[in-house]
Design goal:
five-stranded mixed β-sheet; homodimer; alpha+beta; aminoacyl-trna synthetase (chains A, B); ligase (chains A, B); 33% helix; EC 6.1.1.15 (chains A, B)
């Protein structure tokens, strides 16, 4: 809130003398007009606006050149027309990263003032388009949200222009004459609200500058943008001002705590104990296990300074803890009597990747558990690795309702120095790419060391697997709120007493459900319609909505709506607890069954090389008879990327990558079976050993 | 284990040709001789040794000059004599930090080879004393533990000397003739073991070079060293090669998880939700709340490089998360409808202190929870702060059996920008110093923000409060093992069947106790005597030992021994579960009662300034009628440090510090009461407002 004060002083420096007006937060132009109508002391006439940020299609080598459009709220800001005017190709709405990283703002807060936040090196690339209708504005009061949608400032066209001139380094400012597609562009205060036509036009426009509660892009049409919207609008995640880092909000952290609870109990029964090793690693220790650390070296973050003191030796932040822990293992294991040694830690690790970050799936800091154990024999070590793999499979399947395939990694893909790397392989149907979590055994001089890790990427996989165009779909077992209870069916004709009866019934149902361990909540907020509440909880993926109205109560029942299927059904108040519990179990099972069907449909047995790339290109994984030779895997990678060159990647950021082996599944196909000495590898023609699962992967 | 291989190649470079011999790990010279007697292919004669590291008393401004003594195992290495020889004052055994930081070794692993690990800048300050008896050694085989006590190398006197010459930069090497206080210094292999006299002499010597299971220093005599020994020998904590960082081992992490479980349930019922914010903070955000961050600035760790890429802007690691979170609070709180906002996170934070680190109490990275909430009104905020304070008090008192005093901080001591800082004040009787955890309310423009944190320092306080000269004393509620069951009373005359009956009885008792939720474990290890097992679990502080022998079984009972009081009592097998559960509750209560008595005895009501400093010097806290003025607090600090100048600080590292106010206790003394307008502040004579607790503090 104190940012507003900072802004005020910043604005006065730029010649703005009025302080921002505070009002109810708004989500669209209609609400904005309405909110302003309740505030006293406003100008008699003012003009509402929208600020949009676009991104053109550009070669990766070029610095990004975003386009900021400042327009009247009802101007027809056609992205093709703007692109033509600026000679830029394929303008699309910029994603949240751009808003956060470059403009230090976020959806719902975008305004011309965000230009002042752009760094000197970036501002030269920014193009600004100003609507001539604003420059010709006759009200003298152009309205912008200064920082949040709960505040408004009013400025004159002249002030707007002087502000744009005052932004240091900003050179590309273009004026455009948008054909207004509504009758009036000025909202006179006397009218109280803009015309219905203007409001409808604004609502149908995909306005990046106005925060929206719902999801406005389809999962099938623009998957990356859908994923971002689902995460942020469900309040699972917030973008952060250090690139590649994200805030894990309570809704997502709850999922992580459910995973922790399940896994912690599981490994405790295996005799694994929790501990905590420091996050810092001396360079000497980090470099001790060169082989192991090689892959991480370019991604290690180094602390070189404390306060204003340069450290004598830079200190690394752990990318993983093998090198941190093993010297102490050597100390603690003085004879076979000290074996097995089994420890685990819950912590965050840092891998400063320069590739495009993606929430949960590729982040510079992430939460995980890492288990590290030492055994006397390979047999014991492998038993443990498979026990842990089973826990991982159960987390995916039983908690997150995400099907996986168990197996081992090929020689090329296994961990450095390991005898065996086991894996559970998931699959994102929307992109056709695989995703994995693994455990491995590494034999050492006298002991067999195992390590295994599972991270918050599981949450990303869950969202991608189940989410739909309405938002998140949460599996009941990990949903913070399993049942949301909404009072319905109350109209102006109902009395206060009627309302009270319905509220009490909601609270009563909530209490009954909570008493049997169901995480139920009532949404008794005023000033929101049932429809707004439905949307609110749909975006957040709550598995069951219970609607209670006077008519339901007359019938001694409530109405239930499933989030996963949208199926509605009445449920009797009598025995409600067990009905709801059963429904939660049913939803959990149905979600897994549905996801498994999608998975199974996308895993194709491929017996001819010709079919291999087309199968991948149809966003499927391929199960092929394979020779298991590393050289052959390299060839497959090369041939599948070359062969697919004509192919359109599924999102701008994905390279047209070749396929790699995901795993050698424990459960092998039997139709046709591999006949040793007869079945050939489909790529090289050598004898095939087993079926291997190949695909593109995260 | 692979370190041994590295060592072998290092040693061969120095002219050592034999590889180390591996044997059972040993804890003293008697075991060493015995272990070697079982290894074949050894030299016919060899000499056992000890390597000791001392530290003289020096001005803080001087570089530390440790003394490494290499001697025959039974030479009388009198520290006074060595000090006289080297003209150094008050030699004491170096603590674990020195072993870890300077010599990169640890107790049980110290040998002359550790000299090769000392950095160039430090080696010039190291003084080495070599026992002439070794230089005159006639066996040609002087035995050292190369890295761990499970390995031995044999070198000649000439090789030892050439090694010392080969250590680059080592200039101070002195020969000394220790009067051997045992008959023979050479262990002939034919003898199988050294003479009893030699073994006894070695055992009574405090040998830093030999790892010991028990605690060999008294809590009253050398508290800092006692604290280190208890932590490391109980396996709670391991020293780490980055100074100021420590490994929290399972025994200690279990305590933390118990605290987490209790506190998490507590704050959940207050409506607080868990989340996770990134550990990285941009410099811009860090500096935004200048007031708040000022105190932390010199301790902030900065990441400036990733892999080999210099970052454009250095990025800080959070020292706390207020500055990280508040910009997002401003975004999420768009109107009063979004209040209260209550979040908490479990994470680690980094404060790169340059003061002397101390495990759990002052570490550069530590685990904690930090709660940050925003409320519409001060009243709501303060209710929450007190609710959380109650949870903190309950963690200290109910879980850790550590008494505390609740109160508020004085204006001088409260958090920057806060209206009120509440606190629970603990007290370390052994040092007479206070220790605190706090919560605070900070009013902002439109909201009241609260923050509150509790860290792993709680574990250090628990250890300091309850530990004794036998080691850790764990409060039952947080003890990973609450009951250890040890088979006893079996002698050579007992049959295998007798042994089996006793083992089965142990396992049966274990199973019965576990069935009712008691964390019981049987210690059925062979090759250890009951006495060794008793020591093992005593050091680790297990609250109840259950001894089961043939005679106990005849009487249908078991013998119990309490760790806190050492009281032994038989308990009937019938109804054992409830007897043990009751005993655990009794121990938990008794520990708190005992600690509270110590606490109360040490909190003195002081009504005359003359008594103030003497009370502090007798390791007490003082409750004084006080005016509550900041200027007076400054005067108290000055006068109490100046007045106490003649005073010996309780450990070398503690400055002779002045007293500060710890809190204004919620529960005020009533005898005598403060009479407003009459009772005067004992320092300045102004009117006293309340009693305030003053003391020296961690």
């Amino acid at each position: 809130m104190s940012d507003i004060t900072a802004l005020v002083s910043k604005l006065s420096g730029l010649g703005f003398n009025d302080t921002p007006v505070e009002h109810a937060p708004v989500e669209n132009v209609e609400q904005w007009a309405e909110a302003l109508s309740t505030v006293s002391g406003l100008p008699a006439e003012y003009t509402l606006t929208k600020t949009l940020i676009f991104k053109p299609k550009q070669p990766k080598s070029e610095a990004m050149a975003p386009v900021v459009v400042i327009a009247k709220h009802d101007s027809a800001t056609n992205s093709k027309a703007i692109g033509n005017e600026l000679k830029l190709k394929e303008l699309r709405f910029a994603n949240d990263d751009v808003l956060t990283d470059m403009f230090q703002t976020a959806k719902g807060s975008v305004s011309p003032f965000a230009l002042a936040n752009v760094s000197k090196e970036n501002i030269a690339n920014v193009r600004v388009v100003v609507d001539k209708a604003l420059l010709n504005d006759s009200t003298g009061n152009i309205a912008f949200h200064p920082l949040t949608s709960s505040h408004t400032v009013f400025v004159s066209a002249a002030t707007l222009q002087s502000f744009l001139k005052a932004v240091e380094g900003l050179t590309h400012v273009t004026e455009m004459d948008f054909a207004a597609d509504a009758e009036t562009a000025t909202v006179a205060k006397a009218e109280k609200k803009p015309s219905a036509a203007a409001a409808a036009a604004a609502a149908s426009d995909e306005v990046a500058g106005v925060s929206k509660g719902g999801i406005d892009v389809s999962k099938d049409v623009d998957f990356p943008r859908w994923y971002q919207q689902v995460l942020t609008r469900s309040d699972m995640l917030e973008y952060y001002d250090v690139s590649g880092c994200y805030i894990v909000r309570p809704l997502a952290y709850f999922v992580w705590q459910q995973i922790q609870e399940f896994f912690d109990a599981g490994i405790r029964s295996l005799g694994v104990k929790n501990c905590y090793f420091p996050m810092f690693v001396s360079s000497k220790v980090l470099e001790r296990e060169k082989d192991h650390i090689e892959g991480f070296a370019p991604e290690v973050a180094w602390v070189t300074r404390a306060g204003s003191t340069e450290l004598a030796e830079p200190i690394a932040i752990r990318p993983t803890s093998e090198t941190v822990m093993y010297p102490y293992f050597a100390k603690w294991i003085r004879s076979h009597r000290d074996l097995p040694l089994k420890i685990n830690q819950w912590c965050s690790v840092v891998r400063w990747e320069f590739k495009n970050p993606q929430p949960f799936l590729r982040t510079r800091e992430f939460l995980w558990q890492e288990g590290h154990c030492a055994y006397l024999t390979e047999k014991e070590a492998m038993v443990e690795v498979y026990d842990v793999l089973t826990l991982y499979r159960r987390i995916y399947e039983e908690l997150l309702a995400v099907p996986v395939i168990e197996g081992v990694k090929s020689d090329k893909e296994k961990f450095a120095g390991g005898v065996a790397t086991t894996t559970v392989e998931g699959f994102i149907a929307a992109t056709g790419r695989g995703i994995q979590d693994s455990g491995a055994d590494r034999p050492k001089l006298h002991v067999h060391q195992t390590s295994w890790g599972l991270s918050t990427r599981t949450i990303g996989v869950m969202v991608m697997t189940h989410g739909d165009d309405q938002g998140l779909v949460m599996p009941p077992r990990v949903a913070e709120t399993q049942v949301i209870i909404v009072p319905c069916g109350l109209t102006a004709k109902h009395s206060e007493e009627d309302r009270r009866v319905v509220s009490d019934a909601c609270l009563n149902v909530e209490a009954r459900l909570r008493a049997v361990g169901v995480r139920a909540e009532s949404d008794l907020r005023e000033h929101y319609t049932p429809g707004q509440k439905f949307n609110h909880w749909e975006v957040r993926g709550v598995p069951i909505r219970v609607e209670i109205g006077p008519k339901d109560l007359e019938k001694h029942s409530v109405m239930t709506a499933r989030r996963d299927t949208f199926v509605k059904a009445p449920v009797a108040l009598e025995g409600l607890e067990s009905s709801i519990q059963l429904l939660l179990v049913t939803i959990q099972n149905d979600m897994l069954v549905k996801a498994r069907k999608t998975f199974d449909d996308r895993v194709k047995i491929v017996l001819e090389w010709n079919e291999f790339v087309p199968v991948l290109n149809s966003k499927c994984l391929a199960l092929i008879p394979w020779c298991e030779r590393e050289v052959c895997e390299d060839q497959i990678k090369t041939r599948s990327s070359r062969d697919s060159l004509g192919d359109e990647p599924e999102d701008e950021k994905a390279p047209s990558m070749g396929a790699k082996s995901l795993c050698l599944p424990s459960k092998q196909p039997t139709n046709p079976p591999i006949v040793h000495g007869e079945t050939k590898c489909i790529q090289c023609g050598e004898n095939a050993k087993r079926y291997a699962l190949f695909g593109r992967s995260y």
